[in-house]
């Protein structure tokens, strides 16, 4: 699973529109995630505010690093292994994708085109794939 140069640019430039709204983006994201799968909520032990700030920070790092995935991979692998330790299961990654795309649609509005959706979905698959493989081995 890899991104085209154009998709990388699309993800990075659309993320720049999300950044000024980081805190509402984080809140919207977690609200949606727990609606999709209420069983996920108890896995989060930190306060939502802290969690959502941390998530947006790492998302920013990941988005910035998409063009050099080999540099990013070791960090993403460790993140995947830690997540298994938090009780995260492979199927939770799908709920996470849905909440992420929903949040992007809510924030980007008209700028959330099919092309943007596709680019984010591919970027997420790539990162989630690295995390899952590090935690549970190749599918
Ligand atoms: C691209 C995917 C993801 C990213 C970038 C991400 C990011 C993070 C970060 C930065 C942390 C802070 C702790 C650490 O660095 O180890 C964290 C914790 C956590 N994440 Fe994720 N995550 C992702 C996917 C998921 C998924 C799919 C789930 C499951 C629904 C999940 C559930 C959790 C939980 C339960 C914690 C621990 C919270 C706590 O201890 O209170 N994450 N995540």
Descriptive report:
This protein starts with a helix and ends with a helix. The chain is globular, with a radius of gyration of 14 Å. With 139 residues, it is mainly alpha-helical. It has one domain (5-136): Globin-like. The protein contains six helices and no strands. The protein binds protoporphyrin IX containing FE. Residues 40, 43-46, 51, 54-55, 58-59, 62, 79, 82-83, 86, 88, 92-93, 96, 127-128 line the site of protoporphyrin IX containing FE.
Give the structure's gist in a few sentences.
This protein is mainly α and 139 residues long.
Keywords:
binds protoporphyrin IX containing FE; globular; Globin-like; mainly alpha; single chain; 139 residues; 6 helices
Helix and strand topology:
Blueprint: H1 5-18, H2 22-36, H3 48-65, H4 69-85, H5 92-108, H6 114-136
Helix pairs in contact: 1-6, 2-3, 2-5, 4-6, 5-6
Bound molecules: protoporphyrin IX containing FE.
Helix content: over 70%
Rounded radius of gyration (Å):
14 Å
- What shape does the CA trace take? globular
- CATH architecture, please? Orthogonal Bundle
The first-to-last residue Cα distance is 13 Å
Number of domains: 1
Total DSSP helices: 6
The largest β sheet comes out as:
none
Average pLDDT value?
A: 92
Total strands: 0
Strand portion: under 5%
Q: Write out the CATH superfamily name.
A: Globins
Class derived from helix and strand content: mainly alpha
Output the CATH class name.
Answer: Mainly Alpha
For this structure, the CATH topology is Globin-like
Q: Tell me the series of helices and strands, N- to C-terminal.
A: HHHHHH
């Amino acid at each position: 699973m890899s991104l085209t140069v154009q998709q990388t640019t699309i993800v990075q430039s659309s993320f720049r529109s999300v950044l000024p709204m980081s805190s509402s983006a984080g809140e919207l994201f977690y609200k949606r995630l727990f609606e999709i799968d209420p069983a996920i909520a108890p896995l989060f032990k930190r306060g939502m505010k802290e969690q959502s700030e941390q998530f947006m920070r790492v998302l920013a790092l990941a988005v910035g690093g998409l063009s050099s995935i080999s540099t990013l991979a070791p960090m993403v692998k460790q993140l995947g292994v830690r997540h298994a330790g938090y009780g995260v299961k492979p199927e939770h990654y799908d709920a996470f994708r849905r909440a992420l795309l929903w949040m992007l649609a809510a924030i980007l509005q008209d700028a959330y085109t099919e092309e943007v959706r596709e680019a984010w979905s591919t970027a997420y698959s790539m990162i989630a794939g690295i995390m899952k493989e590090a935690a549970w081995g190749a599918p």
